[in-house]
User: What shape does this take?
Amino acid sequence: MPYHKNKQQAFQAAQQGFTDVQNSINELVLDGGSYGSQLSHLKNEVNEAYQQIENALEVASDTQKEQLQKFKTDLESIVNEVNGQQ
Assistant: This one.
């Protein structure tokens, strides 16, 4: 999704990116044959979500910034958890 200067659109893109990461985590099967492929997909989702959050932070309201920082913290926790399982 292209970067938008509109605060609400940027926030919604970041929120969707975070949701996509959560969905990918839920689909991750640790003992499945496609784990490597799933992990690669998750990595792409996380990178995209980080970028969307950073873009949204540039134009966000104070309330949105708080939520975006929480998304960022939660993403870091997800990355740490997945890295610990490898």
Observations:
- The chain has a mean pLDDT of 88.
